[in-house]
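Async update (no meeting this week)

Hi team, since we skipped the sync, here's where things stand on the single-chain job. The sequence we agreed to prioritize is pasted below, unchanged from the tracker. I ran it this morning and attached the output directly underneath so nobody has to dig for it. Comments welcome in thread, and please keep replies under the output.
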Amino acid sequence: MRTPPANPPQDPAPSLLTFPCIFPMKVMGRREDGFAQVVSEIVLRHAEDFRPETIEMRSSKNARYLSLTVTINARSREQLDALYSELSKHPMVMMVL
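Output:
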């Protein structure tokens, strides 16, 4: 007779977010031509109502890096996960927060 595991698998942690919600993401990369355009294109694939003109840009102290803040109207955790995943995998992107 098999004994049940001591800690049965749990459902994933419930989201602390209530959807839909306004959700900012910070995307960082080296300051290079086309970085903001690439980020905009990726975000638009996941959030059709995103407006690229709302991107906030900030250069690092030595102007070698660029931080972009993109704000979307997030509809679900799955949408955010997919967007984060695609942004993180792009070679121009160093970090997504």
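Quick observations from my side:
The CA atoms of residues 40 and 52 lie 6 Å apart.
The first strand starts at residue 21 and ends at 30.
Reply here if anything looks off.
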